[in-house]
Design a protein that fits this description.
The protein is an alpha/beta fold. It has helices spanning about 10-20, 25-30, 45-55, 85-95, 100-115, 155-170, 190-210, 220-230, 245-255, 280-295, 315-325, 345-350, 360-370, 380-395; strands at about 35-45, 60-65, 75-85, 120-125, 130, 135-140, 175-180, 215, 235, 255-260, 305, 335-340, 375-380. It contains 14 helices and 13 strands. Strand 8, helix 8 and strand 9 form a beta-alpha-beta unit. Helix 4 runs antiparallel to helix 5. The radius of gyration is 23 Å and the shape is globular.
């Protein structure tokens, strides 16, 4: 006798097939094997009470605040508790009800669609990039004098190009070129300086490697000139907030975009109160809003990647929670990029003060990220972490 730990509907189906269950039985029973808990934040009490009654009526339940039954409070969070099958029935019952319940019904259906999605296709000006069957490795090329881990290691553009070539030989699937440090406390650089740093490197890499190149910038002019020089992806740590022209430019260029969560700016993001009322909830809401903004400006939603922003306006404990519960970000229905490489929170836990010596801690975070849903990992140490990703993929994806 053993306990079956099922993490997806496909795993439930596989176990039923092993037993020899009739196909119609598999279709009926697999959703009943999947427990589901859905948190809805800030629900009006009258709505929360209807949710609880409807879930109880189909054998499930809903957890709400103590004062919600008598409406002695204005709002409550609600946790919907049941099997996938029960919650699907619940969504059907809400579809025609008032008080915003029909919208909740649609959101639940969309959530289930998003978390069950396994594959994505990005379309750049040059190619299609498939995500889902294995984790992609994004190699970091910082052409900056002051990045926290590798600033100033290149004296010429050709050195950076050769470094990128080596990364591809070691297994990098994407190269991410950046000319402005985003370490805590860093200042912005001029457009002219950033162009001088990144354009020669992108032009050189385009001639020597076949993998897509990403430009790490928050400036629309830099993004445009980088793509004209051969870059295919825009990685904007501001989620296109720092330059109002970035959404329009990205839409015109037709490139995939990476939208990252950050509070404040690199200069001040680690200052003041870093407390979140709802860490994952606030990050997900932020990214959802940025996705909607991107769509409204003409960016294809299928070309959007999300990044929870490890270390950007977050404590070490926050970063660990994000990794542990990374699967929650799948509710947005977009591929997930995670960048933990050599970051300070790893050193805080392991005691390793030198960023370059945090590779073993980075390996643990990369493994956790992949096992919890990451599609792309952004790293400095490509060769080692390519092997880590291959093992994690073998465990998770088979």
């Amino acid at each position: 006798m053993r306990y079956l730990k099922l993490t997806s509907l496909s795993e439930a189906i596989e176990e039923l097939k092993k037993v020899g269950v009739d196909p119609h039985g598999i279709e009926a029973m697999a959703p009943k094997m999947m427990a589901a808990n859905i948190l809805i934040e800030g629900v009006e009490c009258k709505v929360a009470n209807i949710i609880k009654q409807e879930m109880l009526s189909i054998g499930g339940d809903a957890a709400v605040a103590r004062g919600s039954v008598g409406c002695s409070i204005d709002k409550t969070d609600a946790i919907i508790i049941g099997t996938t099958k029960q919650i699907e029935r619940f969504a059907d019952k809400l579809s025609a009800q008032p008080f915003g319940l029909s919208r909740i019904s649609g959101d639940i259906r969309k959530l289930f669609d998003n978390i069950s999605r396994k594959s994505f296709t990005l379309r750049t000006p040059k190619r299609e990039i498939s995500l889902g069957d294995h984790t992609l490795i994004m190699g970091i090329i910082n052409v900056t004098p002051d990045s926290f881990s590798d600033g100033g290691i290149f004296s010429t553009a050709s050195e950076a190009v050769e470094y990128g070539v080596k990364m591809v030989e070691e297994g990098a699937d994407i190269l991410d070129v950046g000319g402005e440090s985003s370490r805590p406390g860093s200042n912005t650089v001029s457009t002219e300086d950033e162009l001088k740093r990144v354009i020669p490197v992108i032009e050189g890499l385009t001639r020597k490697v076949s993998v897509p190149i990403s430009i790490d910038t928050t400036k629309a002019n830099i993004a445009r000139m980088a793509v004209d020089s051969g870059a295919e992806i825009i990685n904007d740590i501001s989620s296109m907030r720092f330059d109002e022209d970035m959404p329009k430019v990205a839409a015109e260029l037709g490139t995939p975009v990476i939208l990252m969560h950050m509070r404040g700016t690199p200069k001040n993001m680690q200052e003041g109160d870093l407390t979140y009322q709802s860490l994952r909830g606030e990050i997900i809401e932020f990214l959802k809003n940025r996705i909607e903004k991107a769509k409204s400006c003409g960016i294809d939603i299928e070309n959007i990647i999300i990044d929870p922003g490890m270390g950007f306006g977050k404590t070490a404990e926050d970063n660990i929670r994000i990794l542990k519960y990374l699967k929650e970000f799948k509710t947005l229905g977009r591929p997930i990029l995670v960048g933990t490489s050599r970051k300070a929170f790893i050193g805080k836990i392991t005691g390793e003060e030198v960023p370059q010596m945090r590779i073993s801690g980075t390996a643990a975070t990369v493994t956790a990220a992949i096992m919890n849903g990451a599609n792309i990992v952004r790293v400095h140490d490509v060769k080692t972490l390519k092997h880590v990703a291959m093992m994690a993929d073998a465990i998770v994806r088979g």
